[in-house]
Amino acid sequence: QVQLAESGGGLVQAGGSLRLSCAASGSIFSRNAMGWYRQAPGKQRELVASITTGGSTNYVDSVKGRFTISRDNAKNTVYLQMNSLKPEDTAVYYCNIYTPFWRGIGSWGQGTQVTVSS
After folding, report:
1. Residue 67's CB: how many other CB atoms inside 10 A?
2. What is the pLDDT of residues 60-115, one digit of tens each?
3. What is the pLDDT at residue 113?
4. Strand 10-13 relative to strand 112-117: parallel, antiparallel, unpaired?
5. What phi and psi, each to the nearest 5 degrees, are found at residue 73?
6. Distances from the Cα of 63 to the Cαs of 8, 9, 69, in angstroms?
7. Mean pLDDT of 28-38
8. Which residues have CB under 8 Å from 6's CB, separation 6+?
9. Most buried of 33, 69, 100, 111, CB within 10 angstroms?
């Protein structure tokens, strides 16, 4: 089982930047694609970005050009650089392994709160 610890969230004004980090334990990290997800109040959790073990990335349309996902396999850590933040980016952000069936994942970390003020 992968244990996950997200950090780096906070309160920022619109247009600002934050860098999220996720430290993962377990050898499963280096063998799996990883993803950043977010859940805004009253909304379902959504996939924001994913990165394969080889470094290929994908993003939801709403964050393309603003967010960058990266990973350091030696440190078992995945990052999310968020620039040009908007109030609609406000949510709790989580990391986890990525699979096309991610909605069935039952174990999540506590996440990190990102709040963007207008």
Report:
1. 22
2. 999 999 999 999 988 999 999 999 999 999 999 999 999 999 999 888 999 999 99
3. 98
4. parallel
5. -65, -30
6. 18, 17, 11
7. 89
8. 20, 21, 22, 93, 94, 95, 109, 110, 111, 112
9. 69
Residue carrying the six token digits 């859940």: 39
pLDDT score for 2: 67
Task: Please answer whether residues 114 and 18 qualify as being in contact, where contact means their C-beta atoms are separated by less than 8 angstroms.
Answer: yes
What does the DSSP assignment read for 30-76?
A: GGS-EEEEEE-TTS--EEEEEE-TT--EEE-GGGTTTEEEEEEGGGT
Length of the chain (residues):
118
Reduced to 3 states (helix: H, G, I; strand: E, B; else coil), residue 28 is: helix
